[in-house]
Amino acid sequence: MSKNAALSYLPRASVVHRLTGTTKLAFFLLWSTAAMLTYDTRLLAAMTVGGLVLFSVSKIRLSEVKGALLFMMLLVVLNLTAIYLFAPDQGTEIYGTKTVWVHLFWRYDITAETMFYLLNFFMKYSAVIPVALLFILATNPSEFAASLAGIGVSYKVGYAVALALRYIPDVQRDFHNISQAQQARGINLSGKDKVLTRLKNSAAILLPLVLASLSRIETVSNAMELRGFGKHKKRSWYMQRPFQNIDWIAMGLGLVVLLISLGLLVVHQSRFFNPFV
C-alpha cells in the first residue's frame, strides 16, 4: 500500500509538531486569509518560501505526500487553464494595459498582463498548499478536535471531524485489501483494459467498500452511544495542551503576515500589485 496515497497524521519530532492544535489552526486561517486577500507578487513569493521552509522544518518528506501534491498541482493547472480559456484578457482588464507577446488565434493572445495575473494566481496556491498540508499532516486528529473546541466550535462537530480524519487511512487500507482480493478472483483492474471496462470492474470494489464502511460506522456510533456521547454540553479533551511561548510566536507570525497583506491593500488601493504602470 502506498504511504502517500492518502493524507493522514505523520508524527515527527519537530517544532511544527510541538505546536498546539489551536495554534496550528489559527496560523493556517491567518496565513490562508492573507494569501486570499492579496495579489501582490512580492508577498506571495515570500509566503511561498516561508511555507516551504516550514515544511522542511516539519521533517515530513515530499515523497510521503507526493500523490496528494501531484493531485493538487493538477487541479491548479486545470484551474489556470480554465481561467485563460474563458477570460484570456483578464490581465488586461485588471492592469489596464495590453502587451502582446504572441497572437494565437481569434481572441486568444499571450499577453504579459494575463501571464502575470496567472502567475500570481498560481503563487496564491503555492503559498497556501504547504501550510495546508502541514496542518493536516502535523496535527493529531484528537488534538485537532480539541483545537476546534478551543475556538468555540461544538465538540460534537470537532469529534466528527476527528473521526473523519482518522477514517481516511482505514478506507485506504480497506480499498487496498478488497482490490487485492478481487484481483485474486480474476477481476482485472490494471490499466491495460479500456476505461469503461475498468469502471465496470471497479464496482466490484466499491460495493464491498461501502458495506465495510457502513459496518464500521454502526460499530463506532454504537460505542459512542453506549458511552453517553452528547449528553453534556461541554467536555474535556485528553489531547488539549496549554499554550507555550512557541505557540504565541507562531500566532504572532501569522498575524503579522495578515497585517502586511491588509497594509498592501491600503497602499495599492487594490488587491493587485501593478508593475505595468
TrEMBL record:
Subcellular location: Membrane
Coiled coil: none
Membrane topology: Multi-pass membrane protein
Glycoprotein as UniProt keyword: no
Main localisation: membrane
PANTHER family associated with the record: ABC TRANSPORTER PERMEASE (PTHR33514:SF1), PROTEIN ABCI12, CHLOROPLASTIC (PTHR33514)
Name of protein: Energy-coupling factor transporter transmembrane protein EcfT
Organism annotation: Candidatus Allofournierella pullistercoris
